[in-house]
């Protein structure tokens, strides 16, 4: 049994936290021989509820779980952590302007970036989930200059999983038979869910390009893409709460693949700091097709981009540039 790793979850008293913590603590993500100490951060009024979550984690009787540190202090929460899952964010309230929401989140992620810089291990892996996830991740990374920008990522795996599931439903296969799907851009309704390079293994064992398996380009353009882009809103409309179970599952998928690697014949989607690949402005946190190995990631190169795809990729990049500029304005 190796030394315990310290994993921070912020917003841990919230609904994603509640769906996530069991999977982190029982070895589903970092392995069945990896002991873990959970650091749970939330705001002061949520500490009572957080205490209840700690009771429940104890009651799960999990041998890998060595300690649960509940706190409202960044100095405690970020101390010596190996992994940070930044879920807590300012929610949009009735009548709140987008600009005010962004400014509130910039404050949170600026402070948490500085706390990472000061207290976390320099090898810490950071996953930003709280929205606007890409821009929050950018702000966090900018405020943690001593930590390599490759250690920062934001969650677009939920969108990726949604895209796989929609294709699987359409073709009549299980989701594991759909590979090489990509989410490009922002975790927002401008994202581009792309199946132009995806492959599907049919129930007869034959593997085809997703376009040939689906045989319905109109469905791809006019149903599949908007359904994936607007799935988050559809869940809020139906549940009156945002996605939590599927978000927690996606967080686990993202972290597990970063830790243990992606399969040879597949890739995943992660929001990462752009190195200029595919003409996306350097420095933006943009979702790309990603392969992971040895706890590092790389952008899948060489995928053909036609004019239609280029337009969609540019549109979502432009939204991110606007968010970034607004966020930087808010820090002045
Ligand atoms: N990227 C994605 O795919 C994705 C998917 C689903 C939800 N989200 C986002 O995740 C976030 C959390 O969702 P939820 O459903 O768990 O919300 P929630 O409101 O149930 O929980 C959020 C928690 O964060 C806490 N919090 C607020 N500010 C904090 C701060 N500064 N420090 C620490 N904790 C703080 C709150 O007290 C609350 O307990 C939201 O921003 C949501 O939009 C992202």
TrEMBL record:
PROSITE patterns: MDH (PS00068). The keyword Isomerase does not apply. Residues 156-329 form the Lactate/malate dehydrogenase C-terminal domain. Its EC number is 1.1.1.37. Keywords: NAD, Oxidoreductase, Tricarboxylic acid cycle. The active site is at residue 187. Substrate binds at residues 92, 98, 131, 162. It is an enzyme of class 1 (oxidoreductase). NAD(+) binds at residues 11-17, 42, 105, 129-131. One of its GO terms (biological process) is tricarboxylic acid cycle. It catalyses: (S)-malate + NAD(+) = oxaloacetate + NADH + H(+). Coiled coil: none annotated. Residues 6-152 form the Lactate/malate dehydrogenase N-terminal domain. The keyword Oxidoreductase applies. InterPro entries: L-lactate/malate_DH, Lactate/malate_DH_C, Lactate/malate_DH_N, Lactate_DH/Glyco_Ohase_4_C, Malate_DH_AS, Malate_DH_NAD-dep_euk, Malate_DH_type2, NAD(P)-bd_dom_sf. Pfam families: Ldh_1_C, Ldh_1_N. Belongs to the LDH/MDH superfamily. MDH type 2 family. This is Malate dehydrogenase. It comes from Brachionus plicatilis.
């Amino acid at each position: 049994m190796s030394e315990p790793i310290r994993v921070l979850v912020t917003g841990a008293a919230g609904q994603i936290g509640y769906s996530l913590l069991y999977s982190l603590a029982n070895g589903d993500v970092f392995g069945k021989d990896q002991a873990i100490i959970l650091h749970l951060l939330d705001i002061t009024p949520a500490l009572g509820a957080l205490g209840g979550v700690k009771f429940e984690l104890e009651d799960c009787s999990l041998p890998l779980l060595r300690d649960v540190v509940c706190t409202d202090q960044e100095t405690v929460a970020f101390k010596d952590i190996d992994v940070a899952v930044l879920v807590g964010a300012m929610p949009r309230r009735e009548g709140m302007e987008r600009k005010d929401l962004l400014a509130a989140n910039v404050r949170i992620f600026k402070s948490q970036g500085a706390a990472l810089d000061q207290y976390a291990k320099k090898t810490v892996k950071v996953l930003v989930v709280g929205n606007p996830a890409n821009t929050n991740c950018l702000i966090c990374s900018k405020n943690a200059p001593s930590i390599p920008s490759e250690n920062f990522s934001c969650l677009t795996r939920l969108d990726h999983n949604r895209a796989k599931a929609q294709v699987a439903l359409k073709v009549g296969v299980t989701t594991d038979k759909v590979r090489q799907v990509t989410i490009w851009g922002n975790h927002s309704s401008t994202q581009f869910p792309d199946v132009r390079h995806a492959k599907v293994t049919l129930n007869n064992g034959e593997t085809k390009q997703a376009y040939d398996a689906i045989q319905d380009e109109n469905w791809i353009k006019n149903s599949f893409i908007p359904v994936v882009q607007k799935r988050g809103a559809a869940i809020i409309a139906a549940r009156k709460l945002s996605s939590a179970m599927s978000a927690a599952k996606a967080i686990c998928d993202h972290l597990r693949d970063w830790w243990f690697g992606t399969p040879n014949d597949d890739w995943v989607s992660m929001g990462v700091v752009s190195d200029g690949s595919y003409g996306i402005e350097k420095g933006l946190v943009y979702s790309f097709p990603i392969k992971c190995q040895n706890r590092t990631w790389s952008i899948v190169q060489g995928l053909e981009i036609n004019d239609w795809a280029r337009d969609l990729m540019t549109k979502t990049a432009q939204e991110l540039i606007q968010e970034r500029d607004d966020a930087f304005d808010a820090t002045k």
